Task: inverse folding
């Protein structure tokens, strides 16, 4: 096999590889394809699958084997060509077959984008604003109120009309131009007034209704409503109110602390809540400082990002979103239909974010190399133990997975690189 490598003119980070594969190797591939597919050939005078190669060639033409023979060779040849020439491809190759014929050398080209060089700017001694979040008494009380809200009991109300914050039980049916529409009807539906779960104007018009009262309310669907057929349409909803409930909040005192926490007094509970909030704020400040640091070093660095890397990152983001949607019992195509967007529009929305993420990764990798940051054996072992504990696996199982170990090493190096930038920054 011979490989010729050349840069593509006027295309940064794009190269063309020309592969020449010996005729003998291509002919052997043709024979392999024939053997794998012999059982499918039905030629008169021969049992099915028993027709000799020459007879199959005469009947169907030898070209019938070319595509499969090429596919059998090309992947292996392409991978070896990249490895031998130390090329790190970041896009799918564009293949062009120059010559394909039995008894002759197979010649094809592959145009591929390669990992770009990063021109690093200043990454040591960058200036950052100190990020700090303090915990106030108000924050602690707000947390307590949230817990009290969660522990509220519902009490039926019969002596007054609906007020904001009430829980109502209603029947409703929606009409547009006098016709009922799909999805606009429900019975004994529980709705908290003021929750904002229904379209604007719906909940507000239920305020003032009394038990067993019927009321028609008029609303307009938002222009960005998920159901396209309802966007901007005016609708009349017929409402029947069955029940009113209000939340009865527990008094926030020592007794509540005993019932809703592991503490005997409210003061002890408050102290614990404050500590948790302070810990959360410390983590929040740390992550924000790290993001700011990465953003600064990325601004100072230059790199020409190949389109293939951006597309791959969008692929990853799309896969992540698809996975999260699947947990909700929804497919991506269904979601796109619901929000009224095409696959391409969806991908275009993530293009800038993908570009930003790719640059982030490339810059961090370049700093990692420049600063000679490595993952120690001890750090890897610690991480493996943590993973084993989290996922309930044996450490030996994890160590057997070479790809996972590489991921662990790269994760540690990335974390250390970010910390290196922050540690060497001037924080004011």
Result:
């Amino acid at each position: 096999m011979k490989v010729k490598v050349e840069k593509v003119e006027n295309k940064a980070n794009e190269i063309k590889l020309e592969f020449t594969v010996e005729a003998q190797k291509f002919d052997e591939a043709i024979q392999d394809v024939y053997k794998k597919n012999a059982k499918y050939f039905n030629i008169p005078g021969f049992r099915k699958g028993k027709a000799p190669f020459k007879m199959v060639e005469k009947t169907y033409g030898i070209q019938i084997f070319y595509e499969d023979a090429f596919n059998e060779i090309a992947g292996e040849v392409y991978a070896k060509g990249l490895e031998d020439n130390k090329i790190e491809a970041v896009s799918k190759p564009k293949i062009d077959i120059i010559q394909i014929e039995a008894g002759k050398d197979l010649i094809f080209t592959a145009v591929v984008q390669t990992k770009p060089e990063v021109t690093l700017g200043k990454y040591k001694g960058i200036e950052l604003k100190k990020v700090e979040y303090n915990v106030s008494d108000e924050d602690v009380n707000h947390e307590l109120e949230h817990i009290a809200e969660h522990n509220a009991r519902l009490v039926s109300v019969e002596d007054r009309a609906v007020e904001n914050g009430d829980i109502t039980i209603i029947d409703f049916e929606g009409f547009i131009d006098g016709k009922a529409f799909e999805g606009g009807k429900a019975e004994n539906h529980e709705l908290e007034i003021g929750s904002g779960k229904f379209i604007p104007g719906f909940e507000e018009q239920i305020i003032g209704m009394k038990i067993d009262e019927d009321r028609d309310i008029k609303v307009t669907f938002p222009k960005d409503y998920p159901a396209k057929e309802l966007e901007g349409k005016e609708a009349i909803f017929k409402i029947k109110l069955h029940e009113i409930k209000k939340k009865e909040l527990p008094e926030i005192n020592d007794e509540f602390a005993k019932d809703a926490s592991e503490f005997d007094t409210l003061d002890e509970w408050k102290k614990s809540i404050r500590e948790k909030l302070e810990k959360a704020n410390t983590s929040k400040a740390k992550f924000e400082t790290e993001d700011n640091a990465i953003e600064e070093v990325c601004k100072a660095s230059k790199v020409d990002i190949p389109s293939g890397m951006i597309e791959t990152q969008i692929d990853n983001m799309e896969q992540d979103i698809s996975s999260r949607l699947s947990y909700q019992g929804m497919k991506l195509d269904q979601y796109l239909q619901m929000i009224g967007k095409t696959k391409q529009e969806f991908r275009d929305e993530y293009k800038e974010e993908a570009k930003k993420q790719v640059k982030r990764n490339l810059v961090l990798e370049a700093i990692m190399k420049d600063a000679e940051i490595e993952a120690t054996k001890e750090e890897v072992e610690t991480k493996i133990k943590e993973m084993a504990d989290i996922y309930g696996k044996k450490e030996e199982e994890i160590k057997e997975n070479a790809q996972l170990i590489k991921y662990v090493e790269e994760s540690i190096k990335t974390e250390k690189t970010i910390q290196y930038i922050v540690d060497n920054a001037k924080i004011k």
